[in-house]
Amino acid sequence: MLKVNRRNNSLHYRVYQKGQGVRFELEFKHRQTKLVQNYLFSNQLDIFEDKLVFQFFKYSGQVLRLDYQYTDWVVDFRRRYKIVNTSNPNLLTSYLKNRRMSEEEEEKLFRLLQFLSFIKSLGLNSFQDCERLKVKKQNYYRLKFPLSKFVRYTGIQISNQSDRKKLIGYFKQLHKLDPIVKEFSDGGFRSYVCFLYAECENPSTKAWVVEVFAAEELFWFPYPFKLPKSFLISRQKNDLRLKVRLIKALAVSEQKKLLDLQEFFNTINVSNKRLIGIKENIIQLLKELVKDQIIHDRLEIVLKNGKKKDVPVKYLTASDITRRIKYLKLTENIKN
Asked: Residue 305: its pLDDT value, please?
């Protein structure tokens, strides 16, 4: 029915009928097999399988029409795992839970997302560029980098000793994060920490250096959505609160995303002048999501009294964002 590329190319895709069914098949050769063969040779079959499955769905989304009724299985995968361009900051969402967080929890989550995105930005090949430490069946890879490099990537402002001490304190807390747990069909499990070891020191009294042993999954996890780079930068408390809520809203698998503005406005107590600035920030962040084709331009405003209004993001003004709003309904751009 369909063939893409020649049979001897690195990727050869074909759709054909067999018996009463239709098969969608992707063959890997040459360079493509070299990208994943180390996982097979080292008997890490779960990672090897995940990478092949991920590549299959990614390529299927490139060669097939996603608005066709018989390709809904591709759309479903993309919605749950959101295949993204690796040049954009990708974020792990295992820690995004549908519950209210304290300010301290929100800040920890935000810093975690920053750090995981920073790891991805390094573009490291875990086999070639990192020292490996194996604990039982789990691999950890050593990362060593100047603290200033992380600061530049995230846009964190370090204006005094207190700011630096607070940032260093975050790395002290890495080992306290919830562990990664793998459940097996017979009821067994395997549990291990995300970060086995973390150290931050100033050996030369000039530059601080961070050393971390990170779980292998943090290098290859198929991140479910992407965000503009500006979402990783926050210099103000209410800005951080807003971005955490947007991140949590976007992380759900459904195509419709709900941003709860009623809950957000209940957490802030500011002057009218600062409130206008917050409203303008909401609009600016939504416009960035539209520009990056993460959401569609039109959104639905749902008021507390049940009334609804459909508005293009590009025409939103601060007067449209009021405390009478219950939530904004955003639509994910699944074709992106």
From this structure: 94
pLDDT at residue number 96: 58
User: Does 202 lie in the same domain as 140?
Assistant: yes
Q: How far is it, in rounded angstroms, from Cα 271 to Cα 287?
A: 25
Nearest CA to 96 out of 229, 257, 333 is that of: 257
Q: Look up the CATH number of the domain holding residue 206.
A: 1.10.10
Tens digits of per-residue pLDDT, 253-299? 678 899 999 999 998 888 989 999 999 999 999 999 999 888 999 99
pTM, entire model? 0.66
| Rounded Cα distance, 215 and 264, in Å | 34
Within a domain: residue 50? yes
- State the Cα–Cα distance between residues 293 and 287, nearest whole angstrom: 10
**CB-based contact 82:247 (threshold 8 Å):** no
